[in-house]
């Protein structure tokens, strides 16, 4: 299927590795000119070079912290009017809510709720004027099924989900959609960090924790960033203009509910 994206531009956050990189790779394969943003300059440049080599496409790398005003300004200076916005920031560290003070909560809200909202605010009106826009927020399966040690993420990302639910119904008439992708267990650094936390709590080895998580998933495995990226590319496609305000859970069937 031709996704109709060959003339489009995208700003992809947290794109040096993991799920953000998977999204950038999939969009670039569709002919999208992508601007990658991440904090680590070395990993970011390596990711950009790999995408250029694989696709021959236009790839711009911006080393910046997207959770800060200066970082957002740098990203938007490089890609001021993206047709596609993929918001993504590393989740807060797992732990016990008794250990989190106000500063920890504000940092979580800044990274995982307010930063996406600020990026949407900076780009959505131009999308509306051009009558094309696709915004995809990478959130978490914890929005659907909260995980006790990820309370900071549960709260901040759920706040973003509520905000998006209202705005997405206003922009869709202008062919601007806003959706959330909710990853479950994917082969990423974030998953390994969570496994280390469980390992400390249970006394099991990290590899044992990971093996048990694989076995507990109906698919018998973890997802791959490439699978996630392709789902993102479809939500950004010309064909997906009738999908908005949705939370697409990608978890291998782990969540047992009907809704």
From TrEMBL:
It is an enzyme of class 1 (oxidoreductase). It comes from the Bacteria. Transmembrane segments: none annotated. The keyword Transferase applies. Its EC number is 1.1.1.100. GO terms for molecular function: 3-oxoacyl-[acyl-carrier-protein] reductase (NADPH) activity; nucleotidyltransferase activity. The keyword Hydrolase does not apply. This is 3-oxoacyl-[acyl-carrier protein] reductase.
């Amino acid at each position: 299927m031709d996704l109709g994206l060959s003339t489009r531009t995208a700003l992809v956050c947290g794109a040096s590795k993991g799920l953000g990189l998977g999204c950038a790779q999939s969009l670039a394969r569709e002919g999208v000119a992508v601007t990658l943003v991440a904090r680590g300059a070395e990993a970011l440049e390596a990711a950009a070079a790999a995408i250029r080599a694989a696709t021959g496409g236009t790839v711009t790398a911006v080393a910046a912290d997207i959770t800060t005003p200066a970082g957002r300004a740098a990203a938007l200076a490089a890609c001021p009017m993206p047709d596609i916005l993929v918001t993504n920031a590393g989740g807060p560290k797992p732990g016990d809510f008794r250990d989190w003070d106000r500063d920890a909560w504000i940092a979580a809200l800044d990274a995982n709720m307010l930063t996406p909202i600020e990026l949407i605010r900076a780009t959505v009106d131009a999308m509306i004027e051009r009558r094309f826009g696709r915004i995809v927020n990478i959130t978490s399966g914890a929005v659907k099924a909260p995980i006790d040690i990820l309370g900071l993420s549960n709260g901040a990302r759920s706040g973003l989900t509520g905000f998006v639910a209202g705005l997405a119904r206003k922009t869709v008439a202008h062919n601007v959609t806003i959706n959330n992708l909710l990853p479950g267990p994917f082969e990423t650094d974030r998953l390994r960090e969570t496994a280390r936390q469980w390992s400390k709590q249970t006394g099991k080895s990290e590899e044992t924790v990971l093996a048990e998580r694989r076995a507990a998933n109906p698919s018998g495995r973890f997802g791959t960033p490439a699978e996630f990226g392709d789902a993102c590319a479809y939500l950004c496609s010309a064909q997906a203009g009738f999908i908005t305000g949705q939370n697409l859970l990608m978890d291998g069937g782990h969540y047992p509910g009907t809704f």
